[in-house]
Amino acid sequence: MTMLPYRELFYTTQDGLRLFARDYGARASRATPVICLPGLTRTSRDFEALAQRMSATRRVLCADLRGRGRSQYCTSWSDYTPANEMLDTFDLMGAAGIHRAIFVGTSRGGLVTMLMAAQRPNAVSGVVFNDIGPEVAIAGLQRIAGYAGVGEAPPDWTEAAFRLRMANEREFPSLTSEEWYAHARRSFAEENGAPKIDYDAKIGTALRKGLEAANGAIPDMWAQFKAIGHVPVLVIRGENSDILTAETATRMEAAHPDLQSVTIRDRGHVPFLDEPEALAALDTFFERI
Q1: CATH superfamily of 7-149+219-288
Q2: DSSP-assigned states of every residue in 84-144
Q3: What is the pTM of this model?
Q4: Backbone phi, psi, residue 235, to 5°
Q5: What are the residue ranges spanned by the domains of the chain?
Q6: Averages of pLDDT over each 10 residues, the chain, 289 residues
């Protein structure tokens, strides 16, 4: 039997959902632990390489947010909100015995992190924003709303890699065939040897309902962003991102007294966090805390 590089952590939320997280590294490590929160339809698999790298010196939790991966699905689309995911993450911290952590938030995970900082500032000791900020470009949201929860799983892994390449090659022009295949493995679960969609389709419904209600006026989160003004921040942005614009990243630098940023060449939304520039920035950031 193959030993997993992480422990399996299941916990129950305040509203009764059974959720899952990967738990890497020594629980007794004196280094500040890290909590990784994935994007809208993504899972803990996205952080596998990063978590194994960081867990050599500190504990790392990688969450499957509600309705994703091995976590329980909600009965209603209206329960898929960043506010509920914030409460779930506080529940995860309680279950893991963690009172304060560095957060790595990819896309949706970064929005959840800002809400957490506004609600409980002392729980956050540093933040890595992976291609997300207090303003989200409407064009990118509309693109994601166009595919989230729509369509069927590809019949095999070759087709899965091909579909991802066709949909994203313009924003990720330098990926090799092997890298597209690895991305497919992160993007789908496996069932009977074939790819399986690994999130609740109602998450896409919730996003589209939210966009309809906003009527093109997406609220910003600058007030919540100010709540992390007391901790170090690293912003990792994809050069070709349609979610985090260069203008917003520049405004984030101007608004925060201790913020570093790096732009990853030939990446869109989102960088994989295995790029040499990203790893160098992450290593420097974590050495500081």
Answers
A1: Alpha/Beta hydrolase fold, catalytic domain (3.40.50.1820)
A2: HHHHHHHHHHHHHT-SSEEEEEETHHHHHHHHHHHH-GGGEEEEEEES--SS--HHHHHHH
A3: 0.97
A4: -110, 125
A5: 7-149+219-288
A6: 88 97 96 98 98 96 98 98 98 98 98 98 97 97 94 96 97 97 97 97 97 89 96 98 98 97 98 97 93
